[in-house]
Amino acid sequence: MPRDFSRARRVGDQIQQELAELIRDEIRDPRVGSVTVSEVRASRDFAHAEVFVTGLGMEEAASMEMVKALNGAAGFLRRQLARRLSLRTVPALRFHYDPVFDRGARLNRLIDEVRPEDGTSGQDAD
Protein backbone atom coordinates (compact mmCIF):
# COMPACT_ATOMS: atom_id res chain seq x y z
CA MET A 1 0.00 0.00 0.00
CA PRO A 2 1.54 3.37 -1.00
CA ARG A 3 2.14 5.98 1.62
CA ASP A 4 0.02 9.11 1.58
CA PHE A 5 3.02 11.41 1.55
CA SER A 6 5.57 9.82 -0.76
CA ARG A 7 9.21 10.77 -1.01
CA ALA A 8 8.65 12.20 -4.48
CA ARG A 9 6.03 14.53 -3.05
CA ARG A 10 8.25 15.61 -0.16
CA VAL A 11 11.12 16.30 -2.56
CA GLY A 12 8.73 18.19 -4.84
CA ASP A 13 7.63 20.37 -1.93
CA GLN A 14 11.25 21.10 -1.00
CA ILE A 15 12.11 21.94 -4.61
CA GLN A 16 9.08 24.25 -4.72
CA GLN A 17 10.30 26.22 -1.69
CA GLU A 18 13.87 26.46 -2.94
CA LEU A 19 12.84 27.42 -6.49
CA ALA A 20 10.61 30.21 -5.21
CA GLU A 21 13.60 31.71 -3.38
CA LEU A 22 16.01 31.15 -6.28
CA ILE A 23 13.71 32.74 -8.84
CA ARG A 24 13.10 35.71 -6.57
CA ASP A 25 16.76 36.24 -5.66
CA GLU A 26 18.83 34.99 -8.62
CA ILE A 27 16.90 35.44 -11.87
CA ARG A 28 17.48 38.86 -13.39
CA ASP A 29 15.57 38.42 -16.66
CA PRO A 30 13.10 41.31 -17.16
CA ARG A 31 10.46 38.87 -18.46
CA VAL A 32 10.39 37.22 -15.03
CA GLY A 33 8.51 39.39 -12.61
CA SER A 34 6.69 38.32 -9.50
CA VAL A 35 6.37 34.55 -9.81
CA THR A 36 4.37 32.07 -7.79
CA VAL A 37 5.55 28.46 -7.94
CA SER A 38 2.22 26.74 -7.44
CA GLU A 39 3.27 23.10 -7.70
CA VAL A 40 6.22 20.82 -8.42
CA ARG A 41 5.64 17.25 -9.53
CA ALA A 42 8.82 15.20 -9.29
CA SER A 43 9.00 11.86 -11.08
CA ARG A 44 9.50 8.80 -8.90
CA ASP A 45 13.09 8.38 -10.11
CA PHE A 46 13.79 12.14 -9.69
CA ALA A 47 14.93 12.44 -13.30
CA HIS A 48 12.39 15.15 -14.14
CA ALA A 49 10.27 17.69 -12.31
CA GLU A 50 7.31 19.54 -13.78
CA VAL A 51 7.18 23.04 -12.27
CA PHE A 52 3.92 25.00 -12.51
CA VAL A 53 4.26 28.77 -12.24
CA THR A 54 2.06 31.85 -12.48
CA GLY A 55 3.13 35.44 -12.98
CA LEU A 56 1.24 37.64 -10.56
CA GLY A 57 -0.49 40.54 -12.26
CA MET A 58 0.56 39.34 -15.73
CA GLU A 59 -1.54 38.70 -18.77
CA GLU A 60 -1.42 35.18 -20.19
CA ALA A 61 0.91 36.17 -23.06
CA ALA A 62 3.40 37.75 -20.64
CA SER A 63 3.18 34.66 -18.44
CA MET A 64 4.02 32.46 -21.41
CA GLU A 65 7.10 34.62 -22.09
CA MET A 66 8.03 34.23 -18.44
CA VAL A 67 7.78 30.44 -18.79
CA LYS A 68 10.11 30.58 -21.82
CA ALA A 69 12.61 32.60 -19.80
CA LEU A 70 12.43 30.16 -16.89
CA ASN A 71 12.90 27.17 -19.20
CA GLY A 72 15.95 28.95 -20.58
CA ALA A 73 17.30 29.33 -17.05
CA ALA A 74 16.40 25.75 -16.04
CA GLY A 75 20.01 24.54 -16.16
CA PHE A 76 21.18 27.39 -13.94
CA LEU A 77 18.32 26.77 -11.49
CA ARG A 78 19.09 23.05 -11.42
CA ARG A 79 22.73 23.73 -10.53
CA GLN A 80 21.66 26.09 -7.77
CA LEU A 81 19.24 23.48 -6.44
CA ALA A 82 22.05 20.91 -6.40
CA ARG A 83 24.00 23.20 -4.07
CA ARG A 84 21.05 23.65 -1.72
CA LEU A 85 19.54 20.15 -1.62
CA SER A 86 21.17 16.95 -0.48
CA LEU A 87 19.95 14.71 -3.30
CA ARG A 88 21.94 12.24 -5.32
CA THR A 89 20.30 13.49 -8.51
CA VAL A 90 18.53 16.80 -8.92
CA PRO A 91 15.67 16.57 -11.42
CA ALA A 92 15.74 18.31 -14.77
CA LEU A 93 13.25 21.17 -14.54
CA ARG A 94 10.44 21.86 -17.01
CA PHE A 95 8.37 24.96 -16.37
CA HIS A 96 4.69 25.21 -17.31
CA TYR A 97 2.17 28.04 -17.09
CA ASP A 98 -0.46 27.38 -14.41
CA PRO A 99 -3.70 29.27 -15.08
CA VAL A 100 -5.26 28.39 -11.70
CA PHE A 101 -4.81 31.89 -10.24
CA ASP A 102 -6.23 33.48 -13.38
CA ARG A 103 -9.27 31.22 -13.15
CA GLY A 104 -9.75 32.19 -9.51
CA ALA A 105 -9.56 35.90 -10.33
CA ARG A 106 -12.05 35.40 -13.18
CA LEU A 107 -14.46 33.58 -10.86
CA ASN A 108 -14.19 36.38 -8.31
CA ARG A 109 -15.03 38.94 -11.00
CA LEU A 110 -18.04 36.89 -12.08
CA ILE A 111 -19.27 36.59 -8.49
CA ASP A 112 -18.86 40.33 -8.00
CA GLU A 113 -20.90 40.98 -11.15
CA VAL A 114 -23.75 38.75 -9.94
CA ARG A 115 -23.98 40.25 -6.44
CA PRO A 116 -26.79 42.72 -5.93
CA GLU A 117 -25.81 46.34 -6.27
CA ASP A 118 -27.44 47.37 -2.97
CA GLY A 119 -24.36 46.56 -0.90
CA THR A 120 -25.64 43.50 0.93
CA SER A 121 -23.35 40.53 1.20
CA GLY A 122 -26.04 37.98 0.43
CA GLN A 123 -26.92 37.30 4.07
CA ASP A 124 -30.35 38.03 5.49
CA ALA A 125 -30.44 41.06 7.76
CA ASP A 126 -32.35 40.65 11.01
TrEMBL record:
It is found in: Cytoplasm. SUPFAM superfamilies: Ribosome-binding factor A, RbfA (SSF89919). Signal peptide: none annotated. Keywords: Cytoplasm, Ribosome biogenesis. It comes from the Bacteria. The keyword Cytoplasm applies. The keyword Cytoplasm applies. Its main location: cytoplasm. Monomer. Binds 30S ribosomal subunits, but not 50S ribosomal subunits or 70S ribosomes. HAMAP family: RbfA (MF_00003). One of several proteins that assist in the late maturation steps of the functional core of the 30S ribosomal subunit. Associates with free 30S ribosomal subunits (but not with 30S subunits that are part of 70S ribosomes or polysomes). Required for efficient processing of 16S rRNA. May interact with the 5'-terminal helix region of 16S rRNA. Belongs to the RbfA family. This is Ribosome-binding factor A.
